[in-house]
Amino acid sequence: MTGKPPRAADPGVGYPMTMPRLGNDESTALFRALCKRAGLPEPVREYHFAKPDRAWRFDFAWPDRGIALEVEGGIYSRGRHVRPSGFLKDMEKYNSAAARGWLVFRCTPQTLDSMTTVEMIFRAYERYAPATRAG
């Protein structure tokens, strides 16, 4: 995989920058399809990255490159990720991931199935060579 990531504005790409809102399963399926179309390998769902120390998982991961994507839900409904205890737990998780060599991106459920998110992952995937990480 080399070159520039496909962009929604490129001729022949054929999909809008942001997809209509779908249910969780449909958004996940669409995200995976967009990744495939962009030339990314299939992401691993619910990837355990800190075994055996912790039970932490990434929503999506490309372990060969140390790249992960976390979907942060509930931002408008005072969900777990924005309440103080959840926020602090996420901070611990993301800092631990960084210390283990992971590059962690974050998005909302509303932006999971957008080309902006896929382009971001594509650029990182192109840039980061396979690496060895702790955990």
Annotation keywords:
alpha+beta, 135 residues, single chain, globular, four-stranded mixed sheet, Endonuclease, Chain A, 4 strands
Shape: globular
What would you report as the Rg, rounded to the nearest angstrom?
15 Å
Q: Give the biggest sheet.
A: 4 strands, mixed
CATH class: Alpha Beta
Could you give a quick summary of the protein structure above?
The protein is of the alpha+beta class. Helix content is 36%, strand content 16%.
Descriptive notes:
With 135 residues, the chain is an alpha+beta fold. It has a single domain (24-127), classed as VSR Endonuclease (Endonuclease, Chain A, 3-Layer(aba) Sandwich), CATH 3.40.960. It is 36% helix and 16% strand. The protein has four helices and four strands, in the order αβββαβαα. It has helices spanning 24-38, 84-99, 109-112, 115-127; strands at residues 44-48, 57-62, 67-71, 103-107. The protein has a four-stranded mixed β-sheet with strand order 1-2-3-4, with helices on both faces. Helix 2 (84-99) links the parallel strand 3 and strand 4. The radius of gyration is 15 Å and the shape is globular. Residues 8-23 have low confidence and may be disordered.
Helices and strands in order:
Layout: H1 24-38, E1 44-48, E2 57-62, E3 67-71, H2 84-99, E4 103-107, H3 109-112, H4 115-127
Helix pairs in contact: 1-4
